[in-house]
Structures are given as C-alpha cells and as structure tokens.
Amino acid sequence: MCTQDKNKYQTPKYRFVVRFTNRYVICQVAYALIDGDRILCQAHSAELERYGLSVGLKNYAAAYCTGLLCARRLLQKIGLDDVYEGNTEVDGEVVKTEYDGKTYFVDEVDDDKKPFRALLDIGLKPTTTGCRVFGALKGAADGGLDIPHNEKRFPGYDRDSKEYDAEMHKERIFGGHVGEYMEYLEEEDNQKYQEQFKIYIENDVEADGLEELYEEVHEKIREDPSAAEKKAFEPDKSYKRKAKLTLEQRKERVAAKKAAKKAELEADSDDE
C-alpha cells in the first residue's frame, strides 16, 4: 500500500477499514505511511444512538448505518458531500458508472471532481457471502464513496445459478432477518425471546417497526453526519485516598492484632 507510481507524487492509497468488536462496528478511512497508518475519518456504531438506534449495534443493518455515517462524514470533511450524495433510495443494487474508460462505483461522475476512491480492508475476517463486512461496504458505497466491489458476496447472491436477488439484500439492510427471528422466537419460545431481546423490549422496538426505524436513522445520518463535540474529561474529585501509614503506625497495628488474637485464644482456653 506504500508503493506508488513516480508520477503520483506520494498520492496515498486510501483503505476503507471495517472491524468488529464484541458489541460494536468500527469503520475508518486510512492510508499507510512508512511509519504507520494515518486515520482520515472514523465512525463507530456507538454513535448511532445519536440518530435513534440504541439496540443491535453490531448486526448487518448497524454495519450498513456505520458505513453510511463514515462515508458521509468523510465527504463532508473534504467538501464532496454535495457533489456525491450517493444512493438515497436503498434498493440493494450495485451502482457503477463508466467514465473516460474507467469504472466508478457511484451514480454520476463530476467532470471537475472525481469521486473519493478507497479499497476495502477487512483484516482477518473471512469473506463469506452475506458477511456483515459487506453491509458496511454497501453503506459506504451508498454514502458516496467509490469502493470497487460486485454483488457476489452480498446477501441474495446464489453461486449455483449466478443470480442476485437485490430484494433479499434490501431486507437485510433494513433488519428484516432480525424481525423474522423476533417473531419466530416470540411465538415458539417466549421465555428465550424475553431474554435474548430484552434490550429491544425495554426500548419499545418491535419487529414490525424495524424498517421504519432504520429509514429514520439513514435520513438523520444524511442530515448531520458530523462527529459530536468531544467532552472534556472531568475526574471525580470527591474520592479521597487514605493517607499512607508510617512505619510506626504499621507496627502498632500489627501489635494490636497480635494482642487481640492472644486475648481471644486465652478466653477460649479459660472456657474449656
């Protein structure tokens, strides 16, 4: 990623980095230098609470939202958010355009400003069909980033028939698979449903309202993708540490413990 043609004059190759933790999704746009990576922009699925999504922050739909947020935030930062708005109507289709003998994965290519190109970086994640990594990729692509890809790893692609069902992918983007499982568990095993979807129930999130919820989240992200202001760290000064004992105080404490134990043993012997 550091090697480059001489006529490029140190133009970096950008990577769209997607990582998953136990609870969240992290998307970054980074580029490599000799001494390490530099992060140009980042989005974290924990930020989705600002946009109305407080549950399921690492599933496929949340990965799509995080990728969309990262893309819109980056384009806003470099001044391309008005030029490349991305795919506002989520349909699951792969969007690409031929321009000047090259393929760009955006709706239209501006004559003056080319789209921001980044390459998908998934680390050690296996590239299985329907993997959540590709949900983040699709979100970033719909957000206006030019990321080379095809439909072969999206949900809805059949290897045998080599056909792609965009509607199945759209359903996954809007959490349809989660809604189906919620309805199934509620009917078949209500106790397990109460345990597994406890946070959904506490936040009044129902299976029927998931699609509308994600639509609202997408709209709010496009309205304001900027990062929240950082809050200054304020330590809790109410806690006071105990003063350290001197050597004499420690010796007195040990002597008092010995005397108390000796008196206890003498009292036991007198009782016997």
Summing up helix and strand content along with how strands pair, one would put the structural category as: alpha+beta
Overall number of strands: 8
- Overall 3D form: elongated
Order of helices and strands: EEEHEEEHEEHHHHHH
Strand order of the largest sheet: 3-2-1-6
- Contiguous low-pLDDT stretches (5 residues minimum) are none
Computed Rg: 28 Å
Round the mean pLDDT to the nearest integer and report it: 92
- Number of helical segments with 4 or more residues: 8
Helix content: 25-40%
Largest sheet: 4 strands, mixed
- Fraction of residues in β-strands: 5-15%
End-to-end distance: 83 Å
List the helices and strands and how they pair.
Elements: E1 14-20, E2 25-33, E3 36-44, H1 60-78, E4 97-99, E5 102-104, E6 119-121, H2 132-142, E7 157-158, E8 163-164, H3 166-173, H4 176-188, H5 190-196, H6 198-202, H7 210-223, H8 247-271
Parallel strand pairs: 1-6
Antiparallel strand pairs: 1-2, 2-3, 4-5, 7-8
Q: Would you give an account of this structure?
A:
The protein is an alpha+beta fold. The protein is built from 8 helices and 8 strands, in the order βββαβββαββαααααα. Strands 3-2-1-6 form a 4-stranded mixed beta sheet. A two-stranded antiparallel sheet has the order 4-5. It has a two-stranded antiparallel ribbon with strand order 7-8. The chain starts with 13 loop residues before the first strand and ends with a helix. The mean pLDDT is 92.
